[in-house]
Structure formats: structure tokens, C-alpha cells
Amino acid sequence: AQSVSQHNHHVILSEAASLELGCNYSYGGTVNLFWYVQYPGQHLQLLLKYFSGDPLVKGIKGFEAEFIKSKFSFNLRKPSVQWSDTAEYFCAMRGNTGKLIFGQGTTLQVKP
Amino acid sequence: DAGITQSPRHKVTETGTPVTLRCHQTENHRYMYWYRQDPGHGLRLIHYSYGVKDTDKGEVSDGYSVSRSKTEDFLLTLESATSSQTSVYFCAISDRAASTDTQYFGPGTRLTVL
To answer: d(Cα A44, Cα A24) in Å, to the nearest integer?
Structure first.
């Protein structure tokens, strides 16, 4: 079965710290991968996406993610977080069903 | 932001009552989706639509029905609400199911079933 796993459920960082959120997926075929962010009280917004090509994908607000096919991973990174990055982050994949499958989400709390 | 609205934004209801949530889009996108968001589960697909009057089940469809009589509106109905359906419901839209397509989400509806 196709699935997505986010290892970190709750991450607490201080401002200016570096961020890496893990995402692994389970599917052997071609995948599309996404990271969405949900700020407190708001809807999900697309941070970045990978369909093909360069495995290092840059998104909005200084976020990037690297697709490593051999590891079935699509980790999200940011070199220096800000208090405004406090949010919940969701990794998602789309395999051959055409439907989005989401991970459980990671809550990021950035302390000023 | 994509032109997606959901109504109501908040609703409290009692067990056993029917509830209908509405998703409205102004983007003329063909595909529309209903998800529920629960702690520890991320978002799970309830139903989706690939055109007017064309719908299909998702991962957690039991207890829910949908209808789409117009391109812009996708309704989710809880036939007889239960406490396990207390959740936040998100609608999403996409232009097509192609591999390069992206889903965009509405603001959500917080439903509490007492």
C-alpha cells in the first residue's frame, strides 16, 4: 500500500536554527511529492512540489526539499527558521492512483 | 490564493442529525475533493469528483455522501452525524488529475458533533 511517513511529530527550534523535517514514502513507481504548510487557523498552502528533473526543489519562503529516490525520501529544509514559520507541515505523495496521500504532519514551534 | 470558499466555517450539531457542508470554487476546475483532518492522521480523502455528477469514494467514505450538480459546487453530506465525524473538513480543487497537477485547499470547516 502507498503511504507517507513523517518521523518528527513535534519539533521545537529557536529562531535562526536550521530545520530539517523528514518524509519517507512507500511506493516503487513514479511519484509526485509535495510539502504543504498550515499556519495556525489557516488552510493548507503549497510550499513546494517535485514532479521530475532536478531533485533539489526550491519553494516559497526559503524552503527547499531534496528528493532521494534510493532512500524514498523527500526531506524539507530551511537554513534559518523564523518565528513566523511556526506551523504544521504536511508531506504528501501521489502515485499511480492519482490521489494525494498525506503524512501525519509535523508541528513546528519556533521560539523567538 | 485559489478561489475556494467553504460554508459554514464552524458548525456544532447533535448526533443523528444530517449535516451538509458546501465547497464553492470560482476557478472552473474539473476536480474537487473532500478531506478530513484529524490529529495524528494528516488529511484523509473522503470523496472526490471528476466532473458534474461524477464522483467516487476515497479512503474514509463511510457515513458520507457527496453531490455535484454544478462545476462550482461540491456538497458533502453526513447522513446521520456521529461523534467520530467531529473533525476539520477541507475542500480542494485541481484542474486535472494529470501528473503535473497540484491541489489547492479551501479554508476548512470545523465540525463538532455532540
So the answer is: 20
